[in-house]
Structures are given as structure tokens and as C-alpha cells.
Design a protein that fits this description.
This protein is an all-alpha fold and about 200 residues long. The protein has eight helices and no strands.
Length: about 200
């Protein structure tokens, strides 16, 4: 097997990222990536087994960021009734999601709208299911810590709210909102949702 060179691998990823973000996954071929990278078609397979593997590398920072947000949400130190009243926590969440979109706007658009035919073509469904499971874990942990709260909330409601969250992200990246408008929207949306959850959980 030919010895890999980091600069060639990085060039392949750079070219593939630009092409995926501009044209979508389906419209970009391994042959085209190889040509634009100035790497022989047979040689590109010494670095990546297939186009899906390249896409995973391209989207890995986004996936790590999404995983981090969900893990942070369920950490013991964040299990507090203050989430329903604290202006500071609200601002922290506004900045968290604004930064996510600012840093990964094009990648989010790719994975939500232009990943057909790839390993991420079912991302919406898979993420929604995972988000729903994390939501149940959060409610159960809150019940353990605060026995008076109500967690008798239907699975379909939690699933739908999880799906709606992805739709919200999709709308923002599709309309390319400037940062101040994003911050205003997230403040409005989170205030609206917090009031609803507070009522449902009888806090």
C-alpha cells in the first residue's frame, strides 16, 4: 500500500468539503474530488475507502458539537429548576446555539437538505430519535431530583418537539439569518418553549 501523506489527505478533504457544501453529496463524485485535488483516482482510495468516509470526516466537527450539546444538557449540574427562571441560563443557551449555527451553518444545511444517498440521508429521523431518548432521560433525572415535577408527558409530544427543533435549525440556516436576528429568535423561541415545559411539568 502506498504511504499516505498528510498534505494530500488534507487537500482531498478541503476539496471535498467545498464541493459537498456547494453542490450537495449526490452531485459530487470520487472522480471529481480526485481531479480537483490533483490526486490519481486510484490513489484517492489509499486515503479514503469511499465518498461516505470523506463525508464523515467533513461533518465530524459538526457531529461532535451536536453530541456535546446533548451531553451537556443532561449533566447533573444542569438538572435544576433554575432553567425555568434564570435569565443567565437563557442567555447561555442563546449564545450556545447561535455559535453552533455561526460555526457550522453550511454543514447543517448539507446534512439537513443535501445528504441524499449518503450515510446521513436519515439524519433527521436518527437525530430526532436520539434527542427523544435524551429527553426521556432528562425528565427521569429531574423526577429523581425533584419528585414533585410531572413527567407524564406523551412520547409523541417529546418526539414531535425534538423533530421541530431540527426544523427550526433548518429554517434558520435556509434563511441565512444574521447573528443579531438569530439571537433575538432564539431568545423568543426558548422563552416560549420554557413557559410550555414549565406548565407541563407543573413546576
Amino acid at each position: 500500500m502506498q504511504t499516505q501523506k498528510d498534505n494530500i489527505r488534507d487537500k482531498i478533504l478541503e476539496v471535498a468539503r467545498n464541493e459537498f457544501l456547494e453542490k450537495g453529496y449526490k452531485m459530487v463524485s470520487m472522480r471529481y474530488i480526485a481531479k480537483q485535488s490533483e490526486v490519481g483516482l486510484s490513489n484517492i482510495y489509499n486515503y479514503f475507502r469511499n465518498k461516505d468516509e470523506i463525508l464523515r470526516e467533513v461533518l465530524n466537527p459538526l457531529m461532535q458539537a451536536l453530541d456535546h450539546i446533548m451531553e451537556e444538557h443532561n449533566k447533573p449540574e444542569h438538572l435544576s429548576l433554575e432553567v425555568f427562571n434564570s435569565e443567565q441560563l437563557l442567555q447561555e443557551h442563546i449564545f450556545l446555539f447561535t455559535d453552533l449555527i455561526e460555526n457550522y451553518k453550511k454543514e447543517l444545511h448539507l446534512i439537513l437538505y443535501n445528504a441524499h444517498g449518503s450515510c446521513y440521508e436519515n439524519f433527521r429521523e436518527e437525530y430526532t430519535n436520539h434527542h427523544t431518548q435524551m429527553g426521556y432521560e432528562y425528565l427521569n433525572k429531574m423526577k429523581e431530583k425533584f419528585p414533585a415535577v410531572n413527567i407524564q408527558i406523551s412520547e409523541f409530544f417529546i418526539h414531535t418537539m425534538s423533530s421541530a427543533w431540527l426544523s427550526v435549525i433548518g429554517e434558520i440556516v435556509s434563511h441565512d439569518l444574521p447573528k443579531p436576528e438569530m439571537e433575538q429568535f432564539f431568545g423568543e423561541y426558548m422563552t416560549f418553549c420554557t413557559a410550555g415545559w414549565k406548565q407541563l411539568m407543573k413546576v
